[in-house]
Specification:
Strand 4, helix 2 and strand 5 (96-102) form a beta-alpha-beta unit. The longest helix has 13 residues, at 152-164. The chain has helices at 55-63, 83-92, 152-164, 185-195, 205-210, and strands at residues 5-15, 25-31, 51-54, 69-73, 96-102, 115-120, 144-149, 173-178, 200-201. By secondary structure, it is α/β, with parallel strands linked by helices. It is 23% helix and 25% strand. It contains 5 helices and 9 strands.
């Protein structure tokens, strides 16, 4: 365990802004690095900035915030080799552990106690060709999937993915999230209702509370 370390961008306490856990207190461990460059990315500062920390130091820092829930996010957290060990250790500490990851990295090695939130990339992200579709077979009713939608083309693409991969039968929740400040949420809601999709529309509530450029919240 002593030789395991990760490059950490920030560790902070806030509330969940997305997913079925939205509104609940949560400690966030944001890891450094991402191999994708989504057109609408809201965390480019996490591409490079960070400090290397031991596993013990990361766990100690996260526990100091005294929240029942801990999320490991990025960047892309699964880029770093020892992220899976961190997730398992947080579970061992009795925490409710969430992982937010793109659809590009292999999720099969993630501890089964972790709630995985997989963000499949739609065409207007510029990275849809990077989705790892083999991850679909790993999804369970403990997991959630998210599609960030910029326009009607993204929406239609997401609708096709839902049907082709039977996602309604595989996961606990499916989220359609409009690109903040770009996609009009009322349009997304209208399309969803018209098509009678079994999905949920989500807004990033932390951006409404603190603004879209705030960090560490």
């Amino acid at each position: 365990m002593a030789d395991r370390s990760l490059v950490v961008h920030e560790i902070y306490k806030s509330i969940q802004g997305e997913s079925s856990f939205a509104g609940q207190p949560c400690t966030f461990i944001r890891l450094t690095g991402c191999n994708l460059r989504c057109a609408w990315c809201d965390t480019p500062h996490a591409f490079h900035e960070g400090t290397r920390m031991s596993m013990a130091a990361i766990v100690e820092a996260s526990l100091s915030h005294c929240t029942d829930m801990v999320e490991v996010t990025g960047g892309e957290p699964l880029l770093q080799t020892h992220t899976t060990h961190l997730l398992a250790q947080l579970c061992d500490e009795g925490k409710q552990v969430l992982l937010e990851t793109s659809g590009e990295r292999d999720i099969s090695g993630v501890d089964s106690r972790v709630h995985r939130i997989v963000d499949f990339k739609a065409p207007l992200s510029g990275e849809s060709h990077r989705n790892r579709w083999s991850n679909v077979e790993c999804l369970t009713l403990r997991d959630e999937v998210k599609f960030v939608i910029q326009d009607r083309a993204d929406y239609d693409w997401a609708k096709d993915v839902l049907q082709v991969h039977d996602l309604n039968d595989r996961v606990n929740a499916i989220w359609l999230s409009p690109v903040h400040g770009v996609m009009r949420p009322e349009l997304l809601v209208a399309w969803m209702l018209e098509d009678r999709l079994k999905v949920r529309v989500q807004l990033q509530i932390h951006k409404y509370i603190w603004g879209q450029d705030a960090r560490g919240v």
